[in-house]
Fold:
Amino acid sequence: MTLDRQRSIATTAEVSGFGLFGGIDCRLVFHPAEEGSGIAFRRVDLPHSRPVPATAEFVARVPRRTALSDGHSTIETVEHVMAALAGLCIDNCLVELDAPEAPIGDGSALPFVEALLVAGIVEQSAEVEAFRPASPFSVEGNGGQTIEANGDPEYRVRYSLDYGPGSPIPKQSACVAVRPETFLREIAGARTFVLASEIEGLRAMGYGRRATTENLLVFHDGGIEDNSLRWPDECARHKLLDAIGDLALCGGRLTGHFHATRSGHHLNHEMARRLTTFPNSSRQTLRRAA
Ligand SMILES: [Zn+2]
Structure:
């Protein structure tokens, strides 16, 4: 696979469903976009809406998901869409939605990946400039969460998950070199999960009215409710998927090795933000593999 030229899709691709948090029906359409334009989301149900660039600058602070807003349009739960685009190394795409939140599908990035692959990926003429950590650095959360970054030539992400002793989700770690083949095989199908003990609180906040065990893995002390795992470490793989989607909010491709330990969306966004600012990061042209 040659990765040194910018990529978009050949034609439009559509994914329909409902949002996990708000439960509203949504039709999401991926459109081809000019080279150099990046990824942006536009709400077609709102008058006078403009495309909102998928960059850390436009991240709105909401719990448990990634939302973008320009003050007029808000687009929620974009992380699995972003992971699908980043995992397939699609640089330029306009994503239109007719609702506030992207469809959840089966809780993974697979519905988006499949639609994008059917549309077909096209190589454009402009070269890819990737963000790369200039030297090792890390970001830290208040509860000991960390993401460590270094400037390895290959883009790799490791996620280490630890909900502590007694959690129905055991301690686990997953790692992937982020390329279309590996993303598709190892990460794209990893699904969203929740602890049964959290559900009541989420429902009280009005979330997840239409969620079922078909789009949300529910863990309780006895195992998983009415479903089974695609991988023994599917939870770590899903957190890795979220991290790939969130790190793409730096606004371009990445190189370097990122090790996330117990990080969530907020810390992922912080890393994306830091990657766009000197002296943490440099830009480099990606070269075609021999
Ligand atoms: Zn997720």
